[in-house]
From TrEMBL:
Gene3D superfamilies: 3.40.190.290, Winged helix-like DNA-binding domain superfamily/Winged helix DNA-binding domain (1.10.10.10). GO terms for molecular function: DNA-binding transcription factor activity; transcription cis-regulatory region binding. Keywords: DNA-binding, Transcription, Transcription regulation. The keyword DNA-binding applies. This is LysR family transcriptional regulator. Residues 9-65 form the HTH lysR-type domain. It comes from the Bacteria. Pfam families: HTH_1 (PF00126), LysR_substrate (PF03466). InterPro entries: LysR_HTH_N (IPR000847), LysR_subst-bd (IPR005119), WH-like_DNA-bd_sf (IPR036388), WH_DNA-bd_sf (IPR036390). Belongs to the LysR transcriptional regulatory family.
Length: 304
């Protein structure tokens, strides 16, 4: 296969884009701090080596030809890729990680993360993000074994510190026709042991069965809240579910919230932990800052 040599340069494509974006050669020259003649020459050379006309002059304005429109669109992909490649080299030279792992306790409403993740995407070019749902001791394992870079947990293991990030709530719910919903509210705790409970599987290698809401005589285990909601909605058992999962169905009347003696809901705090401590990489630190709302530091780092 013959070795291919590019006829055009990235600089020529950037100049071509600037002429269009700035509405002409004069403004593009100001923006790029180059002479107008050098821009004219670059675009003329680009058209010559490609053998196609990209621009035509109408009145005093240079406008795109039909071919130019196609080439402009594709050239933006090219210059963006080049920029990302250079950013990746800079990131890796600075010690940026090729991948960041984020472990999220399943009770955490991750929709609140979207603005932070959107900003993270803007400056983390080349660094992949892996997001894992974790439950109970599975979350703690990631902290103790340092197998994730950033962890949001409902519980801090001994010897670790975390920043409070949010609170969580778990409501006790069942189908409106379920026997528990027919009882006078609030119901006694020992009533629950007479019925099937839907629980979420602990994601740990060696789960601690005495943790949290796993105490139940009869139980079915599922791997995610969505599956638990499906079973509850169909009338099979009761479950502790966070409002971000259950609220819409409660408003529709598809499931009902139960009142329990001495406890209308389960509550707790969520913390963000960097399990690797001082060994946490700069990319993971920037993600943590964004999650905590420290946007200024992240933007400065992205610009540097």
């Amino acid at each position: 296969m013959a070795h291919y040599r590019a006829k055009s340069t990235l600089e020529q494509w950037r100049i071509f884009q600037a002429v269009i974006d700035c509405g002409g050669y004069a403004h593009a020259a100001d923006k790029l701090n180059k002479s107008q003649s050098s821009l004219n020459h670059a675009v003329a050379k680009l058209q010559q080596v490609l053998g196609v006309q990209l621009l035509e002059v109408k009145g005093r304005k240079a406008v795109l030809t039909a071919v130019g429109e196609v080439m402009l669109r594709r050239s933006r992909q090219l210059t963006q890729t080049a920029q990302e490649l250079e950013q990746l080299a800079h990131n890796l030279e600075q010690g940026w990680e090729p991948e960041v792992k984020l472990a999220l306790e399943m009770v955490f409403d991750r929709s609140t993360l979207i603005p932070a993740l959107r900003k993270f995407q803007d400056f983390s070019r080349g660094s992949r993000l892996s997001i894992e749902d974790t439950v109970l001791t599975g979350t703690l394992e990631h902290i103790r074994e340092k197998s994730a870079d950033v962890v949001i947990t409902h519980h801090l293991p001994k010897g670790y510190i975390g920043e409070p990030i949010d609170d969580y709530v778990m409501d006790l719910v069942c189908h409106p026709d379920h026997p528990l919903a027919q009882l006078e509210q609030p119901i006694a705790q020992d009533e629950l042991s007479q019925h099937l409970q839907i629980v979420i599987r602990d994601t740990a290698e060696h789960p601690q069965e005495d943790e949290g809401w796993l105490k139940a005589e009869q139980r079915w285990t599922v791997s995610h809240f969505d599956e638990a909601l499906r079973l509850v909605r169909s009338g099979l058992g009761f479950c502790w579910l966070p409002p971000y999962i259950a609220e819409r169905e409660m408003k529709k009347g598809a499931i009902r919230k139960l009142q329990l003696e001495g406890s209308s809901c389960r509550k707790g705090s969520l913390y963000m932990v960097l399990p690797k401590g001082e060994q946490t990489g700069p990319c993971a630190r920037q993600l943590a800052d964004l999650i905590m709302g420290k946007e200024i530091e992240a933007q400065k780092a992205a610009a540097s």
